[in-house]
Amino acid sequence: MLAAEGVRKHFGGLAALDGVSLEIREGEIVALVGPNGSGKSTLLNVLSGFLEPDGGSVTYEGRPIHRLEPWDVSQLGLRRTFQLAAQPTRMSLLEVMLAGARLPEGSSAWRSVFRARRVRAEQRAAVERARGLLEELSLLPLEHHAAGMLSGGQQKLLSLGAALMGDPRMLLLDEPTAGVNPTLRRTLAERLRTIRARGTTLLIVEHDMNFVAELCDRVYVLDKGRVIAECAPSELAEDERVVEAYLGSVRPTAARRAPGATAPPPEVRT
Amino acid sequence: MLDFLLGVAVVAAIYGILAISLNLQAGATGLLNFGLVGFFGIGAYATGISTMHGAPWPLGMAIGLVLAAAAGAAVGRLGRTLAAEYWAIATLALAELLRLVALNTDSLTRGPQGISAVPGFFSGLGPQSRDLAWLGLAALVLALCWWVSQRVTGAQFGRVLRLVREQPDLAASLGHDVVGAKVRVMAISAPMAALAGSLYTHYISFIGPGQLEPFATFLVWTMVVVGGLGNAFGVIAGAAIVQLLFDVTRFIDDVFDIPSENAGGLRILVVGAALLGFLYFRSGGLVPERLRRIDARS
Ligand SMILES: Nc1ncnc2c1ncn2[C@@H]1O[C@H](COP(=O)(O)OP(=O)(O)O)[C@@H](O)[C@H]1O
Ligand SMILES: [Mg+2]
User: What is the predicted ipTM?
Assistant: First the structure.
């Protein structure tokens, strides 16, 4: 569904992405892991049109998208969230959610001046939808509050909600659980599974290995701008290079675990 | 006294239109337009030049609106390559450029002497009822611009503008053309400024390069900041208050016996003090922007 082919991106002398290739198939939940500064966010920026790669290509549903504007990529149904999910201080949560919806009537300056009734009808349906999503993200009580005043974790959840308002076919999430409390983290995992079941493919940058093991079908490991491994979450701890570059020393119970067993995943020593 | 207040009110209403225009750009979208007077000038000179060549006033006005929309869209497009600060400087430079063109192309604009005897409206009426009629007209146009502004900012388009103002990357990730939004809001708001320019030229029957000084932009910025950036009602109130303040200071030189060559500087000082005072002590303005409350019925 989404494929990168030899993607390169340099910042000055630094090769943030050094020939990255990956492929995500429809209906998958794939994790992208790797140490800080390994290029995960940069890769997401390239995949979503926010950065133009210096080399290589990105194809989404068979068409090259690496030269498109980010909003064009988003309109194709490929949406993303940001690692720093900063929200506007002078817009309410509900407004941000509505901004995520596709509202063709209200988006046209001309029609918003002259066809108030259709604009309003369209908005009414979106408000219902938005409140339902906010409820699921435990944000409904704050719907009329300023989005920028939320905690970091809540801002992350809101940006996920806003992205979902547009019914994306594919979602790229940059550390969606960072700053989100454990209870809500579990709800979030469930929620992402539901999203997949409804037909959205997911690529998730994530440091929480429990979250990855619980949720993802496959993992790509990035280190210094290169893909160093691609495997099932349960196989991560068995790959020496991954252990060395990312996981660090792993608890022996996890390393000795029989393949395919549903034992707890490796924990990262920080 | 009544004549004085009527005159202030007419000019305040015309400046109110400028304030609505600037508020759509700076308040709703975060576009720091320091060249607003350029769009005012396009409308003013389109009216002045057209009527000088015998064209009927609606034609001059229409030319100004169309030119301003095109110029606005082009200037908005500059936002694609220029960061906000550089865009702000570019608007200032472009407006200055326009003033210099007005000053130096004698054949077209009559240069420094300007275009006088622009036909006024309501010339059949006596002075006081003429100003009353003018007040009605200016207030009507102001109300129309306010209505358009409310409609535009009240729907999804307005939310997109506010998101572009604060979190452009978030706006883009949600599928909104950030550059296109700037182009469109400029194409809507620049003609409002041109309309103000056209009306003003008909009202005082004159347009010259002196009216395109950056001070006019500064005055409108003061109105918008005093009223409340982002709040269309507030900026109209701001326009009325600042215009009154500006005109009342006309009498200061009489009262305190200040030589008239210093009085102009004093008026600017008063406006500047008002701007600084508000920026410092009440940056939200008199009627600050509020979060828009969306409920199921709206
Ligand atoms: N806009 C940028 N300009 C310069 N360097 C950047 C920029 N974005 C990222 N980098 C650098 O590229 C490398 C990869 O960064 P990033 O993709 O954010 O890593 P990750 O998300 O995996 O932590 C880092 O060394 C970072 O400093
Ligand atoms: Mg990152």
Answer: 0.89
pLDDT digit string (tens) for chain A, length 270 residues: 999 999 999 999 899 999 999 999 999 999 999 999 999 999 999 999 999 999 999 999 999 999 999 999 999 999 999 999 899 999 999 999 999 999 888 788 888 888 778 888 888 999 999 999 999 999 999 999 999 999 988 999 999 999 999 999 999 999 999 888 888 888 889 889 999 999 999 999 999 888 999 999 999 999 999 999 898 888 887 877 777 777 775 444 444 444 444 444 555 544
CB B194, CB B40: distance < 8 Å: yes
Distance CA A227, CA A56 (A): 14
State the amino acid at position B80 in one-letter form. R
| CA-nearest residue, atom 12 of ligand 1 | A16
Rounded CA separation A258/A244 (Å): 21
Other C-beta atoms lying within 10 Å of the C-beta of residue B81: 10
Which residue's alpha carbon is at the smallest distance from atom 26 of ligand 1? A37
How far apart CA B209 and CA A255 sit, in angstroms, is 80
Write the secondary structure of chain A as one string of H (helix), E (strand) and C (coil).
CEEEEEEEEEECCEEEEEEEEEEECCCCEEEEECCCCCCHHHHHHHHCCCCCCCEEEEEECCEECCCCCHHHHHHCCEEECCCCCCCCCCCEHHHHHHHHCCCHHHHCHHHHHHCHHHHHHHHHHHHHHHHHHHHHCCCHHHCCCEHHHCCHHHHHHHHHHHHHCCCCCEEEEECCCCCCCHHHHHHHHHHHHHHHHCCCEEEEECCCHHHHHHHCCEEEEEECCEEEEEECHHHHHHCHHHHHHHHCCCCHHHHHCCCCCCCCCCCCCC
Report helix, strand or coil for B259. coil
Most A CBs within 10 Å, among B23, B146, B150, B157, to test the A interface: B157
Residue B204, CA atoms < 13 Å, CB-side half-sphere: 16
Which ligand has the shortest distance to the CA of A40? 1
Which residues on neighbouring strands pair with residue A30, listed in sequence order?
Answer: A203, A218
Q: Which residues of B touch A (CB under 8 A)?
A: 148, 151-152, 154-160, 162-163, 165-167, 169-178, 184-185, 188, 230, 289, 291-298
Amino acid code (one letter) for B128: Q
Contact between B92 and B214 under an 8 Å Cβ cutoff? The reply is: yes
DSSP state, residue B24: I
From the list A74, A82, A112, which residue is nearest B156 (CB)?
A: A112
Collapsing DSSP to helix, strand or coil, B122 comes out as coil
Instruction: Look at strands B115-116 and B206-207 and give their pairing.
Output: antiparallel
The one-letter code for the residue type at B82 is L
CA distance B53 to B60: 10
Answer whether A127's CB lies under 8 Å from B156's CB: no
Q: Where are the domains of chain B?
A: 2-210
Handedness of CA B169, B173, B179, B180 (dihedral sign): negative
